[in-house]
Amino acid sequence: SEVAVISLAGIANAQSIRVAGDAMNMAVQRYMRDVFRMELGENTTENVKKILGSAMPQPNAPSLEVSGKDLVQGTPKVVTVSEGHIREALREPIQAILETLLRALEKTPPEMAADIYRNGMLMAGGGSLLKGLDQFIARETRLKVFVDKDPLTTVLRGTAKAMLDRRAYQSVFIN
């Protein structure tokens, strides 16, 4: 996950952490192993995260029957998993992302911090699709948080814009 403070078409401050979708999947697999003594495949784990994954409690969240391998008997096993289970599984990676964001905000110059306070921050990428992550970050930082209208293509659209107007965005290019 990347956190960047961008000003005047340049990166003023950036923080990075090796926690994103795969780390969240591993956290779900670890939780299922520890709590339910069950091993999940990669595709099942991804689906469980997409359907039940959240950073904040979700109203009317469904439960899901999840099938995997019983680690004690080695046989197929099915358990019912709630959104609360998966939120608990994702607590550690979500907290790591928040801490990275807070570090970036700490290192942001005061005049830019005032802009962030006034205008808020934009989330993009696959991680921003996690239900309630924007609300969680807003609650923890007391800042406005927006999710891009199409978060999976935000970086692509920004890169295309920069490529089409290289002079205006020259300061963001690296040789």
Summarize the topology.
Elements: E1 2-7, E2 10-16, H1 21-36, E3 38-39, H2 42-52, E4 64-70, E5 76-81, H3 83-106, H4 110-119, E6 121-123, H5 133-141, E7 145-147, H6 154-164
Parallel strand pairs: 6-7
Antiparallel strand pairs: 1-2, 3-4, 4-5
Helix pairs in contact: 1-2, 1-3, 2-3
What is the gist of this entry?
This protein has 175 residues and is an alpha+beta fold. The chain has a single domain, classed as Actin, Chain A, domain 4 (Alpha-Beta Complex), CATH 3.90.640. Helix content is 46%, strand content 19%.
Description:
There is one protein chain. The protein is of the alpha+beta class. The chain has one domain (1-175): Actin, Chain A, domain 4 (Alpha-Beta Complex). The chain has helices at 21-36, 42-52, 83-106, 110-119, 133-141, 154-164, and strands at residues 2-7, 10-16, 38-39, 64-70, 76-81, 121-123, 145-147. Helix 1 (21-36) packs across helix 2 (42-52) and helix 2 packs across helix 3 (83-106). The chain is elongated, with a radius of gyration of 19 Å. The two termini are 24 Å apart.
N to C succession of SSEs: EEHEHEEHHEHEH
CATH architecture: Alpha-Beta Complex
* C-alpha geometry: elongated
CA radius of gyration = 19 Å
CATH class category: Alpha Beta
Helical proportion, percent range: 40-55%
Number of strands: 7
Low-confidence sequence ranges: none
**Beta content:** 15-25%
Count of structural domains: 1
Superfamily (CATH H level) name: ATPase, substrate binding domain, subdomain 4
What is the name of the CATH topology?
Actin, Chain A, domain 4
Which class best fits the helix and strand makeup? Answer: alpha+beta
Number of helices: 6
* Strand line-up across the major sheet: 3-4-5
- Main beta sheet: strand number and arrangement? 3 strands, antiparallel
Q: What's the N-to-C terminus distance? A: 24 Å
Q: Provide mean pLDDT, rounded.
A: 87
